Amino acid sequence: MKFLILNGPNLNLLGQREPGVYGTDSYDALCQLAQKHAQENNAQADCFQSNYEGALIDAIHGAGGVYDAIIFNPGALTHYSYALHDALTSVQVPCVEVHISNVHKREEFRRRSVTAPACVGQICGLGFQGYLLAMDYFLRA
Ligand code: DQA
C-alpha cells in the first residue's frame, strides 16, 4: 500500500510552533515515524508539506492512480478551504483527516472542518499517533 502523508500550512514548524499544543517533535521526525510505520507494515509513505493551498490541491490531484490513500492534516485550511474539499471529492483516492491537537478543546473556529465531509473519517487529539492510526485503518480495511 502506498500512502501520501499530506500536511498543510505551518506544520513545517512542528517542534518550534506552540510546543504545548503540538509537541516538541519536528516535521522531519513525523515523516520518519510515518515512513518507519509504513515499512514495518510492508507499505510506503511519501510525505509532502506545503504552506500553499494550490500546492496541496495539486498534490491531491496528482495522487490519483499513484497512491492508495491520503492521510491529510490540512492545518487551518481545514476550517475554510472549500477548494480542498472539492479537490478531495475530485479524485478516487480515499482520505483520512488528521489533527495533532484536539480541535474540539480549543477555539470555537477549530471545531468546524469543511474538509472532513470529503474524507472517510477524522482523527484528532492523538498527536503524531493519529497519522499511524489512520494508516492502520487503511491497512486493515
Ligand atoms: C491542526 C489544527 C488546526 O486548527 C491548526 O490550524 C493547525 C494544526 C492540528 O494538527 O491540530 O495548523 O490541524
Q: Compute the gyration radius: what is it?
A: 14 Å
Number of helices: 5
Tell me how many strands there are.
Answer: 5
- Name the helix and strand elements from N-terminus to C-terminus, one letter apiece: EHHEHEHEEH
Main β-sheet description: 5 strands, parallel
Give the spatial strand order of the biggest sheet. 2-1-3-4-5
- Percent of residues in helices: 25-40%
Plain-language structure description:
This protein has 141 residues and is of the alpha/beta class. The chain is built from five helices and five strands, in the order βααβαβαββα. It has a five-stranded parallel sheet, sandwiched between helices. Helix 3 runs parallel beside helix 4 (82-90). The model has no long low-confidence stretch (mean pLDDT 98). The structure holds 1,3,4-trihydroxy-5-OXO-cyclohexanecarboxylic acid (DQA). 1,3,4-trihydroxy-5-OXO-cyclohexanecarboxylic acid binds at residues 10, 73, 75-76, 78, 99-101, 103, 110.
Task: Write a brief structural summary.
The protein is α/β, with parallel strands linked by helices.
Topology:
Layout: E1 2-7, H1 19-22, H2 27-40, E2 44-49, H3 53-63, E3 69-73, H4 82-90, E4 95-99, E5 121-124, H5 129-140
Parallel strand pairs: 1-2, 1-3, 3-4, 4-5
Helix pairs in contact: 3-4
The structure holds 1,3,4-trihydroxy-5-OXO-cyclohexanecarboxylic acid.
Relevant terms:
5-stranded parallel β-sheet; globular; 141 residues; alpha/beta; single chain
